[in-house]
Amino acid sequence: MDEKAVLLMLLVVLALGCTSRKEGTCEKDSQCSGAEVCFEGSCMKVKEVEAIKKKRVEDAKPKVCKDGDGDGARAGSGCPEGEPLDCDDANDKMSPGRTEVCDRVDNDCDGQINEDLKGCVRTLFGGATWGSQATHRLDNPHDLLVDRDGTLLLTDDNHLWRVHLDGRVELVAGSALSNFAEGQGAEARFSHPLGLALAPDGGYYLADCKNNCVRKVSRSGVTSTVAGLCSTLTKNTGQYMDGPASQARFYCPSDVAVAPDSTLVVVDRGNARIRRIAVDGTVTTIAGVGPVEIEEGEGQMGFKDGPTHEARFNDPQSVLVDPAGIIYVSESFNCRIRRIDLAKGEHGEVSTLAGESNTLLGEGGYADGVGPKAQFSYPHGMVFDAKGNLLVADTGNAVIRQVSPQGRVATIYGKPGQAEYVDGPVSQVRFKTPTDLACGPDGSLFVVDAGVNRLRWIVP
């Protein structure tokens, strides 16, 4: 072998020796795979590098464990593992093991505020970061129902939630995606579901507003269609038709209620009518003549009491049926509580139980009183209390009203004109945008406060 060949072989060996590295080591990013970077001589994923850097920053901080507010509980990164830590070391009213009192803070550091306290108001779902509420977000809640087992059913933009009285939350059906689909649990799709009613078989009827149909969810979370064409397509909205379930058409149904004869009463909000779904699925109109032509800028639907086939509604919202079959409807634009007696007259009769407003401009007001002397501002959800009174979420006034069977209206919770979110003593409670309510145990009341994405619990 000549000198040139020997020299060439030597250079090859040296080159190979210079470039050979232990697997996984590196000097620059290009020597790692596309999903990795070179960090301190090793190929690592970006998330791993970030975690190391974050831990180093935390480890470099001084180890502190002190009682800053003098309440007997310490806090800080240097406290021994297992020691109960103060959840707010700047507030001496908050520490592990304290007795919960009716104020606006988490006194015992358990993640809840004002739990189970008489004469107090607490938030049951929304805004919390503990347990199941850390992963479930309440978004534009609307309607509420107490199930037979005492848990709560709650609709928001695209979900049906179950809320336990201890604050645990479960998804019954729906997902973050707004659309239409049948299926089990998260496979189902809703589009702005609103009112709820208990079905005789233990399931739940649901008014799926923007899908323009009435749905049913079984107790196990299987969703199906009761009546109407479920569709969000523009060409399928704004329709009205009575007939068999598959042929009937609705326009943004907003609430449902089961009558004593097991038929289903539906508020067909967009069509300004009150409809009925028979046990066999046949849909008929109970009251209302729907949209009418009036002067531009002076409302869209109208207002008229009288025989059911001549009556007019404007933005009806919620419906209840009492044991005698009398139907009650809250009407947002006309700012009234209406009463439908199907046994009165040849066709049945619609009358105003309480409320008075400018029906052309949709301007209500605030006043307690009897019948037309009372005023509401865009009332929404209703529920019967134990004495047969109507409790009404007076949304525009940010208060809860009570309406007797004779039409006497009184304010029971909140302060008109003070739309804000305040928990604490019942006398100080304030609501932002109450939209629905349900009666709880021992005279308590649950309220959906949509403006702050909260489900609230009043314990008198």
Please give a structural write-up.
This protein has two helices and 30 strands. The protein is mainly beta. It has a five-stranded antiparallel sheet, with no helix packed on it. A five-stranded antiparallel sheet has the order 8-12-11-10-9, with no helix packed on it. β9 (193-198) and β10 (204-208) form a beta hairpin. The N and C termini lie far apart (104 Å). The relative contact order is 0.08.
Task: Outline the fold blueprint.
Blueprint: H1 3-19, E1 36-39, E2 42-45, H2 46-60, E3 120-125, E4 144-146, E5 152-155, E6 159-163, E7 169-174, E8 183-184, E9 193-198, E10 204-208, E11 213-217, E12 222-227, E13 253-258, E14 264-268, E15 273-277, E16 283-287, E17 306-307, E18 316-321, E19 327-331, E20 336-341, E21 349-354, E22 369-370, E23 379-384, E24 390-394, E25 399-403, E26 408-414, E27 424-425, E28 434-439, E29 445-449, E30 454-459
Antiparallel strand pairs: 1-2, 3-27, 3-30, 4-5, 5-6, 6-7, 8-12, 9-10, 10-11, 11-12, 13-14, 14-15, 15-16, 17-21, 18-19, 19-20, 20-21, 22-26, 23-24, 24-25, 25-26, 28-29, 29-30
